[in-house]
Write a structure and sequence with these properties.
51% helix
């Protein structure tokens, strides 16, 4: 071995030794925080998932509200145009509302109708003639009010945050 090769080998050993020293010094300076990010993620992730799930639940409830409000508006418009044409205006309004809100469970919707100042509850207000009962109350120029309520669920991981939550949509139209 000549002198140049010996110097080159010693220099390589010194560089390798310096690299080990540098890595050891960096590890000491960091204080052994190699798993710190993992611990932070384990703390923050459940809270983040809770917030995201709550946002989705609220979005579903808001969608149900918009669908019910639109459907009740359609049903009230239909009732206002049915003067002297149907014996059961409530049933026709309910059918239109259920058609306009296909993503809501029809069994969970409750209805209230106020026709010319007279209240009717349920899905039917059958009359025996066009001049008496609910059909008779559909007088031209008088108000027809339709109200629908629907239960909402603001559930996050199986826990309903607002158990008594209900969505209410109400529309009043003037009978034509």
């Amino acid at each position: 071995m000549n002198v140049v090769e010996t110097d080159r080998n010693e220099m390589t050993l010194r560089i390798c030794h310096r690299g080990k020293l540098l890595r050891t010094a960096m590890a000491r300076r960091n204080g052994g925080e190699e798993g710190g990010a993992m611990v932070e993620l384990a703390i923050v992730l459940p809270v983040l998932m809770l917030v995201v799930t709550a946002i989705f639940s609220f979005g579903i409830t808001l969608n149900n509200y918009l669908e019910l409000t639109d459907a009740v508006s359609i049903g009230a418009r239909y009732v206002a145009l049915q003067s002297q044409q149907v014996l059961d205006p409530c049933a026709t309004a309910v059918a239109k509302i259920e058609q306009a809100a296909p993503y809501l469970n029809p069994a969970n919707i409750t209805f209230t109708f106020v026709l010319n100042g007279t209240s009717y509850s349920g899905t039917s207000c059958n009359s025996s003639s066009y001049t008496t009962g609910a059909a008779g109350n559909l007088a031209s120029g008088q108000p027809a009010q339709v109200t629908a309520t629907y239960p909402c669920s603001l559930a996050v991981y199986g826990k309903n945050l607002v158990p008594s939550c209900t969505i209410v949509a109400q529309t009043t139209e003037i009978v034509q």
